[in-house]
């Protein structure tokens, strides 16, 4: 048993320089590698988060601008529609006024033509009545026998 303790003691004594070197290596790793690496990762993370936040803000601004643009487009379309409706109403009113004027002019021409036609009919009737007597006298002369001593 004593031999085992002696061997363990020799092993532990031989392991002390290795343990010291391991501890020094871990401390050197902490100082030389892990510290700067952690600082760099924190800085990267902060920059990445800042860039992500800037991107989110830019997206929010772009969405706000897009919504504003859409609202302006709706408003412009509504105004254009109103203007179009007003023009159509104006054109309809002008067309109706022109139709009314044409109807009145046509009605006036028809009434004037009717008056002229009635006047011509009355004149023709008077002419016919005036010439009817002459025609009747001619017919009576042509049909009636000529008297013996008369001349024709």
Structure description:
The chain is an all-alpha fold. The protein contains one helix and no strands. The longest helix has 142 residues. The chain starts with a helix and ends in a 9-residue tail after the last helix.
Q: What structural class do helix, strand and pairing data support?
A: mainly alpha
Main sheet: strands, sense, barrel? none
Termini distance? 197 Å
Please tally the β strands and state the result.
0
What value does the average pLDDT take?
A: 91
Unreliable residue stretches: none
The best one-word shape is rod-shaped
Alpha-carbon Rg, integer: 63 Å
Strand content: under 5%
Q: Report the order of strands and helices.
A: H
Which features would summarize this protein structure in a list?
single chain, 152 residues, mainly alpha, 1 helix, 93% helix, 0% strand
Give the helix/strand layout.
Elements: H1 2-143
In short:
The chain has 152 residues and is mainly α.
């Amino acid at each position: 048993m004593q031999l085992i303790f002696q061997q363990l003691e020799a092993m532990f004594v031989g392991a002390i320089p290795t343990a010291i070197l391991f501890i020094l290596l871990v401390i050197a790793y902490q100082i030389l590698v892990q510290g700067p690496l952690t600082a760099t990762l924190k800085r990267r993370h902060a920059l990445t988060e800042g860039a992500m936040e800037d991107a989110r803000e830019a997206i929010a601004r772009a969405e706000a601008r897009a919504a504003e643009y859409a609202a302006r487009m709706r408003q412009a379309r509504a105004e254009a529609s109103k203007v179009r409706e007003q023009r159509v109403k104006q054109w309809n009113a002008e067309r109706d006024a022109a139709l009314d004027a044409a109807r009145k002019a046509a009605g006036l021409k028809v009434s004037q033509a009717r008056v002229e036609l009635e006047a011509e009919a009355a004149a023709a009737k008077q002419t016919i009545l005036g010439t009817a007597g002459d025609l009747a006298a001619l017919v009576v002369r042509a049909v009636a026998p000529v008297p013996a001593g008369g001349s024709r």
